Amino acid sequence: MDRTPSPRTYLDFEKPVAELESKVAELRALEDDDSAVSITEEIKKLEQKAEQALVDIYAKLTPWQKAMVARHQDRAHALDYIGALIDDFTPLAGDRYYAEDAALVGGLGKFRGRAVMVIGNEKGSDTESRLKHNFGMAMPEGYRKAVRLMEMADKFSLPVITLVDTAGAYPGIGAEERGQAEAIARSTACCLRLGVPMISVIIGEGGSGGAVAIASANRILMLEHAIYSVISPEGAASIIWRDSAKKEEAATAMKITAQDLIGLGVIDTIVTEPVGGAHRDRARVIQATGDAIAKALAEFDGKSPDEIRAQRHERFLKIGRGL
Fold first, then answer.
1. What percent of the chain has pLDDT over 70?
2. What's this model's pTM, rounded to 2 decimal places?
């Protein structure tokens, strides 16, 4: 079910829009009070100004501003997409080695009448759920669960759909002690050897190996204002310049946007977001994402496991060729 947020949260660079929409809300309140003075025309003018201001701002977003949009707290998360796109969803838990990891959700269901396996990073929508899901940062058991589910999908010839939205794998001491790097490597390797179609969607933030571990797919889709990178802009700035305040410069240099990555061949398709970002019309974005997934899956109808596997390998081998 789509957990529509309220009230609207504005980003720093959206201040002009926030001020205009606030004035519209104030005038609507006066209008509701049966004011003797007609203010309908004034409301329409302000709404048009706010809409145009939003168009102007989003037409020239910087990479860092896109990162802020990708991390917006009101964007739809994996469970929102699953609730809207997957019928008869049955969650599957545990890695059969250590524990369940709520940062990675997964299970069986039907996507537009077709049985599939779905796996996704879940960041959570409020304080309680964010803590429960560890902000979408998976531990080794999360990636081992992903491997278990992908192998199950392969055994029963079920396409795999993954929804990527994580700042990265959890970097805690316990996770490292339990083999975080090895778990990520095994999950990535599992993606590459699947004989069934795998479609991945970067719905928000695709961070580091924590994202690649469930995104080494036949087709990688990416929302228009999502980001995908080997490290966060803040992390890169801290390492390169010893100053996290240079995150904006780092974001530009790292080529983290969908527009940069499609040109490099890292992703295959950009899913358009509404003006103002995916959080302004979650239902529309989820529907568009579903359409893009269906189109990508259709490309592999009738292909053998060997053909599907070979296409995936070639896809990654050719990244960066000819640059």
1. 95
2. 0.91
